[in-house]
Amino acid sequence: MLTALKVIPQLLCWAVLVPVMSRSLTGMATAVTAAAGFVVGVAGENLLLAYVGGELPFRPLRGVCGVIFLLLWGASVWALYRRGSKGSDAEAVSSPGPLAAGLAASATGVLAGALTLCRLAPLDGGAVRLVPYLSLACAGAVLALAATFPARYLPERLAPRGIPLLALVVSALMVMACSVQRLDIFSPLSMEVMKFIHDFVHQFFESMLIPDHPFFRSDVWGYIGLLFSDKVGLWGGLALWYLPVLFIALALRLERLPSVAHIRQGAARRKLLASFIHERRLRLVAPLFALVLLTGAAYQSRFPATEYWDPKPVEVTATPAGQIVIPKKGEMDLEDGKLHKFSYSQGGRQARFFVMLTPAGQLVTTLDACAICQPEGYGQAGNAVICYYCKTLIPLETVGKPGGCNPVPVPCSVKGDAVVIDAMTLLNTWESTVQVTAHGKGMGK
């Protein structure tokens, strides 16, 4: 029952998407090709999960989602650029041909089916059961065909075409993608924005100013520190997230009024202009609804419905030789595949770290922090850990490797039945990392 409930939001998006496409494109033929594409998407992703597993079935889908979002960006800029051209408004009046409509509907169906299946698929990459996925494929196909009947009652004037239809389709697919943590693109987008701003500010102050220059007072440094908060990445990500649809709405709103110079009667002129303005307002419904969908996608990304394994750090001590020795077996099993957190203190200095077994069978030790974000730590869900600061999901296969939002690795060795870490190396690595991420490189104390 719980498994079925997971895909209800996906199927609701699909139930909205198909009638809009069938009304805007070529009717029942669109629904049939979309239904067939949905079945193909479910079947293809099912085979990848069953025979490949790991991250490979998810990476192509996330890449496709990123590409179509970039396509929406390009279309929105084009629509805004062409807004004033005669006969080239943001929405094409004529419907595409049957072949183009069928290809668009089937491609959308394939992607929607694969995204829906990923929501149903277990995150631990376990054995794939065939019956639930066959049921999902049939449900998606039946829903696509059944949803075309109420589409007949959708007013022709409200049926989006051209770029507004693209905005609606992409926004619905983004909702479906962002509900699956491994396919989410909003959190990585926010993280990249935050990283870009951090790097830009670091580089600017290192190349143009002297650190702690007396010209700046402490309160000025406080304002500069706002550029290093997670809100910068969030608001920057939201701007990039919403702007394409806002550009499309603006392009529609700024469409040039039709020429009425050839009409002599004033009443006829006013009637034509009023009709055009009314139609233009109706065409704004699609991008405005797309904004609602994008908001839902961003909310799912920021507040995923997942409980993370986040144990309380266990205090550890060092030997007289300065070594931290943690038994692999004992009160906790370091080789159970779970994240195990620890903290170490010495003379007012403190570091937080965790030890876990990677899918490759290697015990790794990393800081409970990365080299980009502020040190709010990590939690674990299935085959991934998540950075609590920027909400980036990191596959377990990359834990223990440097770079990006990965936890900063700490050298360790396995001696017999214990993991051994040099205490001073741990403290120095923690302090050098936190000094950059919490305060900004060379930017005050």
Question: What's the short version?
Answer:
The protein is α+β, with helices and mostly antiparallel strands.
- SS strand fraction: 5-15%
**Rg measurement, Å:** 27 Å
Summarize model confidence as the mean pLDDT. Answer: 80
Helix/strand/pairing category: alpha+beta
Domain Membrane iron-sulfur containing protein FtrD-like: 334-428
InterPro entries: FtrD-like (IPR018758)
Keywords: Membrane, Transmembrane, Transmembrane helix
Transmembrane segments: 60-81, 93-115, 130-151, 163-183, 232-254
Describe this entry's structure for a reader.
- It comes from Geomonas propionica.
- This is DUF2318 domain-containing protein.
- Keywords: Membrane, Transmembrane, Transmembrane helix.
- By secondary structure, the chain is α+β, with helices and mostly antiparallel strands.
- It folds into 2 domains: 2-188 and 234-302, no CATH class; 314-439, Rieske Iron-sulfur Protein.
- It has helices spanning 2-6, 8-24, 28-51, 59-81, 98-120, 130-146, 148-151, 163-178, 186-208, 218-224, 230-253, 266-283, 285-302, 423-439, and strands spanning 314-316, 323-327, 340-346, 349-357, 363-370, 378-381, 384-387, 393-395, 407-409, 412-415, 418-422.
- The strands form 3 sheets. A 5-stranded mixed sheet has the order 1-3-4-5-9. A 3-stranded antiparallel sheet has the order 2-11-10.
- A hairpin with a 2-residue loop joins strand 6 (378-381) and strand 7 (384-387).
